[in-house]
Design a protein that fits this description.
heterotetramer, A mainly alpha, B mainly alpha, C mainly alpha, D alpha/beta, A: mainly alpha, globular, C: mainly alpha
Chain lengths: ~240, ~240, ~50, ~210
Amino acid sequence: MAWTWFHRLASPPYVYGVAGRLSPWFAWPAVLLILGGLYGGLVLAPPDYQQGDGFRIIYVHAPSAWMSLMVYTTMAGAAAIGLVWRMKVAHAAAAACAPIGASFTFAALVTGALWGEPMWGTYWQWDPRLTSELILFFLYLGYMGLRAGIEDPQRADRASALLAVVGVINVPIIHYSVTWWNSLHQAPSVMRLGKPSISLTMLLPLLAMLLGFTLLFIALLLVRLRAEVLLRERSSSWTREALLT
Amino acid sequence: MSHGDVEVAALTPPIVARSSATSALGAAALALERDLLLAFRHPSQLVQPLAFFAMVTLLFPLALSPEPARLREVAPGVLWTAALLASLLALEFLFRDDAHDGTLEQYALSGQSLTTLLFAKIAAHWVLTGVPLTLMAPLAALSLGASPSALPGIFAAVLIGSVTLSLIGSIGAALTLGIKRSGALLSLLTLPLALPVLIFGARATQLAMSGGPVVAPLELLGALAVLGTTLAPLAAAAAVRISLE
Amino acid sequence: MREFLDMGGYAAYVWPSYVVTIGVIVVNVIWARRSLARARQLVRRRAAGEAS
Amino acid sequence: MPEGPLEVEDLSVWRGERHVLRGIGFSVAGGQGLKLTGPNGAGKTTLLRSIAGLTYAEQGQVRWRGVDVRRDLRAFHASSAYLGHEPPLKPDLTARENLRYWVGNRRRVASRELGAALQRVGVETCAEQPVRTLSAGQRRRVALAGLTLLALPLWLLDEPTTHLDMDGQQLVGQLIAEQLARGGIALAALHHPLPGTLSAVPTLELAA
């Protein structure tokens, strides 16, 4: 039946095993891509004609910002599956996403501020992207806070899952309202992200970093998922068998 | 079973026929009535958020300067920040007592739609906190240097915006049920979701004070209220069910 | 090399950005591995506790 | 007219790591009752709550009139009453107001009916006082009045005799007997055996 893969995904021992086998296949390409991207971004790419070498921050800022959104979406998707089908593994995946997403959102904020100082002359500019990023950071904090606040694990899973789903509905509304607000109070100079003349040597390292970060996320998620699954299933017999053999 | 059955059976009502069941609307009306009655038995709970709102608007002239031009400039922000915080303060009372004494449990088991019953509760909460806030906001605006011609716009903005604040707040209040010392967490969950209301509300107030057209931000506030009305009670009902599990 | 490290005068912004991001990556990797090791340890300890 | 039946099949509930209920099964037809006994932590409350649909059961089924209750939880709720440890009463409302809102939420109830029910359970003298001023036993009696007024086919009662004196415990027994006599069903988690009446009602003993 077409649904068997879905049911197998719901089985913790299966997921534990498969995640363990898959994670190196994502981890090593991620390492190679990120190292290549770093070399390409720092050495091969020519300086931007307007921003000079300062533009090289894009190679860490853009992938971090991409991660912050992608991880949140993944988390909300897993949470929704967990809510609807009461799938424990999905809740474990959502729980595994949060710290990864929060830490990369933090990186996106810091690199954004570091980029802002030479470009805008100030570390913090209330530009819509950075502001949305900051709000996203608070959404992550709220999610983790709620999860930590509820003692009963099942209830914590379901309540935080609901919050993640509510959050994902709200993210576009928040982003839209922040953009709208920014268009009213816009400062004269806004970040000029190398729109003109992005050469291939500039673009390729960026693509490598974006793909590398994505693969890294999958690898991290798989490892964390295994940990979450083990913790949740610590009293069932398969966990012992999996570890002692 | 026992010999006394025949005589006592006459005293208890027969098992109820479906036809005498309360309609969904009737049940919602009763829930609303009960919450209003309860609030009027405890008026101090109503006054506190209002006093808080008045205090915050008083703080700004003292902290900044009593100079009217300066105050007029910050008035929209002050007004909406104060309104947001005051409505947040009132949120803690929304479900807490009902969760404590088993009312929510009975609502969830009543065979009525929990979403509808919670909508009635949120409506009561808005009547008790949002409406007084709406009545007070023009006064606060006057004290911050708004001209009387700006008051209708401000009144309309707070009227519509406070509906959405109550609705959004209900989700956070329901999610944090059963958590001790949930105050800070409740703000962390609710404030990011409430940002669009703050942005559009402050913009409407600003336009009203400068004599501009307030229709566009009011429409956006209205759209948020409609969206909140359709989605927030559903999410709150799901959160209440989770808290009862 | 000196020129490379100087980053056209942007060294004070470029290098901290890279350090922070790579730091976040490294922390995430350590974090993930440690959480798995901890979970395994917990299960082993339980199994040992029940066997004895 | 006999109601039900209520059938519980292979019900299992985990709480985190703890397996609280393991494969519970029984069947109760209209006019029958069931006493749930067992030490603290045996899962009496969990069983009642998962039958009511509050607590999620990972495994097993609850059927009402032959239909899995999860298929239409609201219809099942419309014919069942659950009474938890604490009477679901608002301290700031009077006994009469409490019943008006609690029972009124489900069915239209006349003021005369409210008075009669409060009299039946012996709290008519304090019907107009805020529940806050009532003793724990009196509150329990008000809740019992509400239970009878709901007039539903299925009763799920968690420790209905808590805080009640001998006379009150007898009243609980009598009310349950009436519920059964009119074809209804009653499940009651009990710590102490009910005095008098219900000796014929079967018992389900839950192990710790």
